[in-house]
Design goal:
With 78 residues, the protein is an all-alpha fold. It has 2 helices and no strands. It folds into 2 domains: 37 residues; 41 residues.
Length: 78
């Protein structure tokens, strides 16, 4: 199965190189070959962990006042 055509020359921009490497690994993953991608179980665990951390951070930060410039105000007492 071919999802994309190989480039004639190696890309020089880092984002293009990174995307091509990710697509190459995705193709290997879909073909059940060895690759550098996380398994679906690993990816789910990482996603769950990050969402849990962000949820807790949001709960804590929601109690800190933010001014109209988006800057968190810290009060150290009067």
């Amino acid at each position: 199965m071919v999802l994309f055509n190989a480039l004639g020359t190696a890309p020089t921009e880092q984002r293009i190189t990174s995307l091509k490497a990710q697509l190459d690994n995705l193709l290997l993953h879909l073909e059940a070959k060895s690759n550098k991608l996380a398994t679906m179980d690993e990816a789910f665990c990482y996603q769950f962990l990050v969402e849990t951390i962000l949820k807790r951070a949001t709960q804590v930060l929601s109690h800190i006042p933010i001014n109209r410039f988006g800057i968190k105000l810290v009060f150290k007492g009067l």
